[in-house]
């Protein structure tokens, strides 16, 4: 259903990514509320070469339908523009992407023309800080065909209870070797050049011993494992648990549930979960708040 929000400022398109990354380094005024701003990008035609590059990096077959995670490429620049506004309450650097829910309401065609919208809402408290949602929508002819909720955490407060003891990973149905350059390869197609994903040297500046894989690449790679079993409409919901250090060897597990499918991604060297998720019909996702 199309949202109804009063007196929202609408901005067409967004600045180029290098400009947005430069803005991310500048101090923000901040505040106690999320900006009442909606970014809109109309008349989007999917570039076949870009789609092919994305499919190759993420493990999808190239067809005339878009993978459900691909529209994230079409709204990423709008998200960046929104979260680098001076009035945004948190700096972009240091925010943690903790969850992502995508609903594909019908198959998305390569030859269609889309309009993208992005806005932020649901600023709320969290045991480890504050949490909010960045929502995205793709529409055709005024009707939403794809929606996304990306949940971000700004740390600041108690970390909450930690899991102790030995964790037992499920038996993997597949073992994936994640190459050390996957962060750079995904950055090429996504535009997400956060330094924590590119090189060990730049990742160490932010407290990571090595570069880590993009969360949305992990989600896309997991979704690609279901190709041939996906319905025309579905919701794919994930929680990002721990970063995947690069390079890595990880175990992927999926199993049937009453609602559809569940899946997890674990490290093979240490019993640590990296991702947990589910695939289910769209009507079962409703519009609940995503909690980390």
Overview of this protein structure:
This protein has 292 residues and is α+β, with helices and mostly antiparallel strands. The chain has one domain (9-159, 168-285): Thiol Ester Dehydrase, Chain A. The protein contains seven helices and eleven strands. Strands 1-2-4-5-6-3-8-11-10-9-7 form an eleven-stranded mixed β-sheet. The longest helix has 13 residues, at 71-83. Residues 1-6 have low confidence and may be disordered.
Task: Summarize the structure in short.
The chain is built from 7 helices and 11 strands.
Question: What would the CATH topology be?
Answer: Thiol Ester Dehydrase, Chain A
Number of helices: 7
**Alpha-carbon Rg, integer:** 18 Å
Task: Give the overall form.
Answer: globular
Which CATH class is shown? Alpha Beta
Give the strand order of the largest sheet, numbering strands 1, 2, ... along the chain: 1-2-4-5-6-3-8-11-10-9-7
* Domain count: 1
Low-confidence spans: 1-6
Secondary-structure element order, as H and E? EHEHHEEEEEHHHEEEEH
How many strand segments? Answer: 11
Q: What is the helical fraction, as a range of percent?
A: 10-25%
Largest sheet entry = 11 strands, mixed
Distance between the termini: 24 Å
User: What share of the residues does DSSP label as strand, in percent?
Assistant: 25-35%
Q: What is the structural class? A: alpha+beta
Name some characteristics of this structure.
292 residues; alpha+beta; Thiol Ester Dehydrase, Chain A; 11-stranded mixed β-sheet; globular; disordered N terminus
């Amino acid at each position: 259903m199309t949202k109804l929000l009063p007196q929202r400022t609408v901005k067409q398109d967004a600045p180029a990514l290098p400009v947005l990354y430069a803005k991310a380094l500048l101090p923000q005024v901040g505040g106690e509320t999320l900006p009442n701003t909606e970014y809109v990008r109309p008349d989007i035609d999917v570039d076949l070469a870009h789609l092919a590059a994305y499919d190759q990096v993420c493990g999808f077959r190239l067809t005339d339908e878009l993978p459900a995670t691909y529209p994230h490429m079409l709204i990423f620049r709008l998200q960046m523009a929104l979260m680098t506004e001076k009035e945004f309450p948190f700096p972009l650097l240091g925010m943690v992407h903790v969850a992502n829910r995508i609903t594909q309401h019908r198959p998305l065609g390569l030859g269609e023309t889309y309009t993208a919208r992005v806005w932020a809402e649901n600023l709320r408290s969290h045991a480890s800080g504050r949490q909010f949602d960045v929502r995205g929508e793709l529409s055709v002819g005024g009707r939403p065909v794809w929606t996304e909720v990306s949940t971000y955490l700004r740390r600041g407060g108690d970390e909450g209870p930690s899991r102790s003891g030995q964790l037992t990973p499920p038996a993997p149905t597949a073992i994936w070797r994640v190459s050390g350059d996957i962060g750079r390869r995904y950055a090429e197609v996504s535009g997400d050049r956060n330094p924590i994903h590119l090189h060990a040297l730049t990742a160490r500046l932010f407290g990571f011993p090595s570069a880590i894989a993009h969360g949305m690449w992990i989600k896309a790679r997991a979704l690609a494992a279901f190709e041939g079993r996906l319905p025309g409409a579905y919701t794919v919901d994930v929680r990002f648990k721990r970063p995947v250090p690069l390079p890595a060897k990880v175990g992927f597990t999926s199993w049937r549930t009453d609602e559809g499918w569940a899946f997890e991604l674990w490290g093979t060297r240490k019993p640590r979960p990296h991702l947990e998720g589910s695939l289910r019909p769209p009507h079962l996702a409703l519009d609940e708040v995503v909690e980390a």
